[in-house]
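Aim 2, interim progress. The first record below pairs a target sequence with its structure tokens.
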Amino acid sequence: MRGVQKMIENEDYCMDILTQSLAIQKSIGSLNKLILENHVRTHIKDSLSSSTEAEQDKAVEELLALYELSNVRGK
């Protein structure tokens, strides 16, 4: 991000700035996917198999919140 900020301050070529910005976004998207996958495979899986309904409800609420964050519903 600092590199992109420096590019903007230096008034670098717009396409170069966009290329770097899109690369950062793609990297963050990949990171988010890995974190989400890990969370679902561990915490959500454990919570859904819990014997308590409260823990199961919490897992469902987390999944719904993630769904909202991803803007899937709005598309």
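The second target in this work package is listed in the same format:
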Amino acid sequence: MPKVIFIERNGKPKEVKTPGNVSLLQVAHANGIDMEGACEGSMACSTCHVIVAGDWFKKLPAAHATEEDMLDLTYGVTGTSRLACQVIVTDALDGLTVSLPPATRNMMD
């Protein structure tokens, strides 16, 4: 089972193990990580925005244009920002480290 390390908003890491082939959003929800995911993974919001650690970012498939458009609507976007609903955790991503941004914007409210 791959592990994922979430750097929570308070700066503390939380390491979790997960079955493979699930989205990072699903992993967060299953492990009590403070990630909203208002659209439940349909890529209609940006409340699951995460900042991927640099070395790991290069190992992810490229984001689609729709994902990049949604990221444009949120706070604190960086060059390694992704939507957690679009990152599928596999064995190849064992040790993936992501940080939660200081804030998110829920356009659905």
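The helical segments are 24-30, 54-57, 65-71. This observation will shape the mutagenesis plan for the next reporting period.
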